[in-house]
Amino acid sequence: MSFCHQHNLVEPEKALADRRYGIRVRLPAGDTFTGLLGEDWERLHWYRTEAERDAAFQQMAARHGYYRKSDSPTQVLEKIVR
Questions:
Q1: What are 21's strand-pairing partners?
Q2: pLDDT given at position 77
Q3: In what order do the strands lie in the sheet containing 42-47?
Q4: 65 torsion bin: left (phi>0), alpha (psi -120 to 50), beta (else)
Q5: Which is nearest to 31 in space by CA: 40, 18, 20?
Q6: CB 34 within 8 Å of CB 75
Q7: What is the pLDDT of residues 17-71, one digit of tens each?
Q8: In a domain, 1, yes or no
């Protein structure tokens, strides 16, 4: 497989092999974004250590400054291990 950017010079199979700790991001049932993304949409993020995963989880769960006061994120975060 060829890569066009230097930062993409990673073999995905090897990069993911040692990342056991993950975060699954889903949308809650009935969320309006499921109309755009589909009912079964999810995104997985993998980390090498449990501490890295937990730090990322806290950051993802925090209310970010770019939300309007009336906005509330509706993502469902789940810690996973493979």
A1: 47, 81
A2: 96
A3: 42-47, 21-26, 76-81
A4: alpha
A5: 40
A6: no
A7: 688 999 999 999 989 989 999 999 999 998 889 999 999 999 998 877 777 777 7
A8: no
